[in-house]
Amino acid sequence: MSKMKKLIALVAVCALMMLTLAGCGGSSSSGSGSGAASGEKVLKVGATVDFAPFEFQDESQKEYQGFDMDLIRAIGKEMGYTVEIQNIGFDGLIPALQAKNIDVIISGMTITDERKQNVLFSDPYYQSGLTMVVRDNETAIQKFQDLKGHKVAVQIGTTSAAEVKKIEGVEVKELNTPADCFMELKANGVDAVVNDRPVNDYYITKTGATGVKALPERLTAEDYGIAIGKDNTEMQKKVNDALKKLKENGEYDKIYAKWFGDQMK
Ligand code: GLN
User: Top-level CATH class of 130-220?
Assistant: First the structure.
C-alpha cells in the first residue's frame, strides 16, 4: 500500500471510531432525562404493572394499559418527554427511584408521611381508599373490626399491609400482587383481602370474578401521587405544571372517563 493510501485508511478508521463513540454518548440517556440518540428527552417511569385499572398488561396490546399509564404518557407529552415505562415490584419502586434508575413512579402510590421521608410527591391525582374482598358465602366478616382472629392477604409494602397490621389479632399474609391475594382467598388460604377500592371493584365487576364480593366499608381515604426523587424539585414542578394543564384542558377528565366512566371524582 502506498503511504497515501495508508493515511486515508487511518483517517477513515479514526472517523469511524469517533462516530461510534459519539453514538454511544448520545444513547446513554441519563437520569436527568436528556438526550437519546434522536435528541429526545426520556422520562423513565417505574410502575408495578399488576394493578388494574391503573396499570396492567392486556395480552392483545403491546403497550401497558390503565389510568396511570395514560396519565403519565399525557404528562410526559406535555413536558416534551418520551415516556419509557419499566415494570418493577412494588417494594422495589422507591429503591429504584433513590438509585436514579427511574425518574418518577406512577403506580397507584398513596401519598404517606412515611414515604415523604424518602421521596417527593406530585399534587394528588386520584382519590382512593381501602376496602375488603371476601368469599361470597362469608358471614362472619362484614366490617374491618371483624377481621380479628382471621387470616388476611395484602400486597407487600402497601398501605393495606400497614393498616391491617394495626388491627389487633389479625394474621397478615403479605403476597407480591393483588392477583396473588385474590387467588389465596379463592383457595381458602385467607378469609379476606384488603386492597385499594378501585382495584377491588374492577376485579369484581370487570374481570368477571366469581365466588367473591367487595364489602362497602372504607377503612381509609388516600390520595395517589406521582413520586419523584427527593432532590428533584425541578421535576416535581414540571410534573405538577403538566398535571395542572391536563386538568384545565379537559385531557385529565377524558382519561378519567375512559377508565372510570362517570363515577364521582
Ligand atoms: N395505594 C397502595 C399503596 O400506595 C397500593 C398501591 C399498589 O399496590 N400499587 O400502598
Answer: alpha beta
Q: Tell me the best of 107, 125, 181 to mutate to test the pocket of ligand 1, counting ligand atoms within 8 Å of each CB and taking the most.
A: 107
Q: Say yes or no: CB of residue 159 within 6 Å of ligand 1.
A: yes
174 in ligand 1 pocket by Cβ < 6 Å?
no
For the whole model, what pTM was predicted? 0.84
Would you tell me how many other CB atoms lie within 10 Å of the CB of residue 72? 27
Give residue limits of the domains in the chain: 42-127+223-260, 130-220
* H or E segment to which residue 128 belongs: strand 126-135
pLDDT band at 206 (very low <50, low <70, confident <90, very high): confident
The class of domain 42-127+223-260 in CATH terms is: alpha beta
Residues 6+ apart with CB under 8 A from 40: 81, 82
Residue minimizing CA distance to atom 7 of ligand 1: 108
The predicted-structure confidence for 131-159, as pLDDT tens digits, reads as follows 999 999 999 999 999 999 999 999 999 99
